[in-house]
């Protein structure tokens, strides 16, 4: 599984869902995913992506942070509607 979500990718292995930056190739031409974070469920991966995006935002006030959180939550909820019981 390789799903692009904005500037990030959702992939998986046999045990985890993985959020990372876009795949790259090393000197030998082998694909790898930089800055990987691992999650046991899709909802956990979505929450992890939300945290990554919030930490990288340019907000400077609590109000901006809350608005950014609300907008990112809405966007991610729409993107993953119906997955693992999401509504």
The gist of it:
The chain is of the alpha+beta class.
In terms of DSSP E residues, the strand content is 15-25%
Unreliable spans:
none
Number of strands: 6
Order of helices and strands: EEEEEEHH
First-residue to last-residue Cα separation: 22 Å
Quaternary state of this entry equals single chain
Give the overall average pLDDT.
88
What's the structural domain tally? 1
What strand line-up does the widest sheet have?
1-2-3-6
Question: Rg to the nearest angstrom?
Answer: 14 Å
Annotation field: number of helices: 2
Q: Helix- and strand-based class?
A: alpha+beta
Index terms:
two-stranded antiparallel ribbon; four-stranded antiparallel beta sheet; about 90 residues; alpha+beta; single chain; 2 helices
Topology:
Elements: E1 2-5, E2 8-12, E3 17-20, E4 24-25, E5 31-32, E6 37-39, H1 42-55, H2 62-79
Antiparallel strand pairs: 1-2, 2-3, 3-6, 4-5
Helix pairs in contact: 1-2
Walkthrough of the structure:
- This protein is α+β, with helices and mostly antiparallel strands and 87 residues long.
- 37% of the residues lie in helices and 23% in strands.
- It has a 4-stranded antiparallel β-sheet, covered by helices on one side. The chain has a two-stranded antiparallel sheet with strand order 4-5.
- The longest helix is centred in the last third of the chain and has 18 residues, at 62-79.
- It is globular, with a radius of gyration of 14 Å.
- The mean pLDDT is 88.
